[in-house]
Structure formats: C-alpha cells, structure tokens
Amino acid sequence: MRIAIRHWPLAAASAVLLGLAGCTGFGDASKSGAPATPPPLFDRIGGKPVLTAVVDDFPQIVAGDARINRRFVVGDMARFKAAMVEQLCAATGGPCHPAASALHDSHAGMGISDAEFNATVQDLRRAMTRHDVPIELQVEFSAAMEPLRDQVVSPMRPTQSVVTQVIAQKKGGKAVAAATSSAHKHSVVASKAASVKKAPVAKKAATTSKATPRKASTTKDN
C-alpha cells in the first residue's frame, strides 16, 4: 500500500504529460514532418466571387486587344460569361462540372491558334491583377489553363496568312488559295519582264527625238 502511494504522483504526472503531447500533436510520429496539402487554386484565388469579377472585366480588356478581339464578338454576353466562369472554376479545382465536350464543341472549326490561346490567358491575368490576385497565383492559373489548350486550339495549326485563309474559305479550299498565290507570282514575273522589254524602246525614242540643228538662212534681203 505504501509503494502504491509513494509512486502515485509520478504515474499521474506521466499521464498528464502524455495527454498534453497528444493534444499538441507531438506524440504523433506519423504527422510530424508531413507537408500540409494546400487548398485548391480555386479557393486561394478567392472562389467564385473573384472568378466572376475577373470574367466581368475580361470583355473590356479583350476589346482593346487587337490580337483576339475579333474572336469575342458574342451575341448572348450573359450566357458567355456564365459558361466561362464554370470552365475557370473547374480548371482551378473548384466545385463546378461543365459538360466534358462543351469547350471543344464551342470552339470547333474556329481555327484558333496557340498565340490566340496565350493572348486569352494573358488578358484573364490582366483582369486578375485588377482584383489583386497575387502574381504567384496567376502563374499557377496559367499552368491550370494548359490542359484546356487542346480543346480550344484547332488541330490544324494555321501556317498561312489570315488573308490567304479567308480566300481559301470563301472560294473552296486550299487549292484555290494555292492557285491564287501562284497567279500572283506569275503576275509579278510578267510585270517585271514587261518593264525590262520597255526600257530599251524608251531609250531609243529618247535618242531619236533630239532636234537636228538647222542651218543658218542664206537668203539676201532685197
């Protein structure tokens, strides 16, 4: 009985210390040193309110961007903005679930280039700057957009000029565009050949047009 009483304070103290260690997490070896999982980019940006504000500012920014403003002439702006918020929400890890093929279907046949896709992301980041989204989160946002590139950019990367593409679309394809380009080359060659042939004739005409000096009159006055 005396031994139990003598050691009771030590046992009680040990139990208290173990309890404190459990509360503070020091006693859990599996948790010590484990990196905490950061929240999704969607939450760190500011969630749907910030994405909605960014998309609201986007049309104004893109209107002054000659690289892509012709791509964003839309009829139903409210519907466009709502769809864009849903896509950005899903891309940044938010609780949104747009149709899997929606982005691809809405951009099919538009012939959008990689440069135009990059310009769109840049303009979205300009809108984020207006709403104080930190630059490091904007960089993460750019990376989050990359999986969407193949759904937006045309599989046939444009290699011709915009003028040639328009001619090809209006007159029936690449063959007409190639013929137009060939005809243009022939016309340039022909015009150069014509200018070369005309040059000697002009020179000859210039030499024959010189006036022959007239002899002084020898008629005597009456």
Describe this structure in words.
It contains 10 helices and no strands. By secondary structure, the chain is mainly alpha-helical. It has a domain of 112 residues: Globins (Globin-like, Orthogonal Bundle). Helix 3 crosses helix 4, helix 6 runs antiparallel to helix 7 and helix 9 crosses helix 10. It is globular. The N terminus and C terminus are likely disordered.
| Mass-distribution shape | globular
Q: CATH homologous superfamily of the domain at 41-152?
A: Globins
Beta strand count: 0
The chain-level mean pLDDT equals 73
Shape-level CATH architecture of the domain at 41-152: Orthogonal Bundle
Largest pleated sheet: none
Structural category: mainly alpha
Low-confidence stretches: 1-8, 10-18, 20-30, 158-191, 196-209, 215-222
Q: Which percent range fits the helix content?
A: 55-70%
CATH topology of the domain at 41-152: Globin-like
Q: How many helix segments? A: 10
Rg of Cα set: 39 Å
According to CATH, what is the class of the domain at 41-152? Mainly Alpha
Straight-line distance between termini: 178 Å
**Helix-strand pattern, N to C?**
HHHHHHHHHH
Give the percentage of residues in beta strands. Answer: under 5%
* Oligomeric nature of the chains: single chain
